[in-house]
Write a structure and sequence with these properties.
Blueprint: H1 2-7, H2 10-29, E1 61-63, H3 78-82, E2 88-93, E3 102-109, H4 118-122, E4 128-130, E5 145-146
Antiparallel strand pairs: 1-4, 2-3, 3-5
Keywords: 4Fe-4S, Cell membrane, Iron, Iron-sulfur, Membrane, Metal-binding, NAD, Quinone, Repeat, Translocase, Ubiquinone
Pfam family, one: Fer4_7
Protein name: NADH-quinone oxidoreductase subunit I
């Protein structure tokens, strides 16, 4: 009797009918009419719909400036020392009219970064953050080298590929 039950696909047909019923509801409701409260969509319609990221999302490293437009970094090198992958390179310099040291060069190699946020936590002057830029793919390896100056590698603005992928808070 059990052999006959496995040969007759009643259970398979019943399962396929149930799957087809729910597939039809989801397929014909997505992007066509209001989604009923019974159906829950787990995918986001990016880029048409704004992406909701977690508040503690760790994106690309960004160097911050103060109200006068000066870089907040005072070259304490805490971020460079604590980085486990050694992707941050800072060169100190002096600037006329500024008492604290000034970064002449602040480089960040994003391709090796593990986004651990140790650099942000170690900075006692709140001069760096991990922003909410989530689309970090590029076609050139050179685009992962980010510095203080340059057209495509500027640490103060989102990178060119992800210019439209910065989630708004």
């Amino acid at each position: 009797m059990s052999m006959l039950r496995t040969l007759i696909p009643f259970d398979i047909a019943g399962g396929m009918a149930l799957t087809g019923k729910y597939f039809g509801k989801v397929f014909f409701s997505a992007n066509r009419k209001k989604i009923r409260t019974q159906l829950k969509h787990f995918t986001q319609e990016y880029p048409e719909v704004k992406v909701n990221l977690a508040p503690r999302y760790r994106g690309r490293l960004t160097l911050l400036k103060d109200e006068q437009g000066e870089i907040k970094c005072v070259c304490c090198l805490a971020c460079e020392k604590i980085c486990p992958t050694e992707v941050i390179t800072i060169e100190k310099g002096k600037k006329e009219g500024r008492k604290m040291p000034f970064p002449v060069r602040y480089d960040f190699e994003m391709e090796r970064c593990i986004f651990c946020e140790f650099c942000v936590e170690s900075c006692g002057f709140d001069s760096i953050i991990l922003n909410h830029q989530f689309e970090l793919a590029t076609y050139n390896r050179e685009d992962f080298s980010i510095g203080m100056e340059g057209a495509g590698q500027n640490m103060f603005i989102p990178s060119p590929v992800g210019r439209h992928s910065v989630a708004e808070d």
